[in-house]
Design goal:
Blueprint: E1 8-15, H1 23-36, E2 39-47, H2 58-69, E3 74-77, H3 87-99, E4 103-106, E5 111-112, H4 122-155, H5 171-177, H6 179-186, H7 191-198, H8 202-211
Amino acid sequence: MAMTNKIRIAIFVRVSTKQQDTVRQVDDLKELCSKQGWEVASIITEKLSGTTKNSQRPGLKKLMDLADTGAIQKVVLSEVSRLGRNTREVLEIIEELSSRKISLYIQNHNLETLTPAGKVNSMARFMLTLLAEFARMERETLVERTISGQRRAWEVEGKQKGRPIGTKEAKDKILYKYPEVVRHLRADKSLRDVAARCGVAINTVRKVKKTMGDP
């Protein structure tokens, strides 16, 4: 009986802080691979900021090593921001994988960078470029808003809102630490759903929601 060779997959997961959990992302992607009949050859997780340079990311280096040795044929991840939040460096990753004939599959948008014939999927590449740029702009907007709000507290109200220095986290630090939680809360997701999606405790989500000024 002829043996069918399964497509070998690397699951790639990234969270922004050490406090966040990668389990939910990994479980979702493993379920996806099982449904598609793909063989999970490697699971790579990173706990670092999406703005970290590619050259300083050990998880990304491991991924490229797997690609170079032919150990994988496809990389799956939950969304393009998991690759990073610097548009140029995200596109560099996509280009490097494509040059090695490694297809990148983005779960939340059902996009794949290569066609079944191994050709570049131009429409998917265009969409991923836009999504990567949106992720970068979203993060920059969040940082600008938190800094602006803190400055207003100092200059207009004459006091620093939030927790006392040395004892509690300042508002801008909380929002900067949990950008994904902020994004999902702005999308009107429930507290429980945000906690599950971001891999954090529901009390953390409540703290972020309160910090954002929501009732």
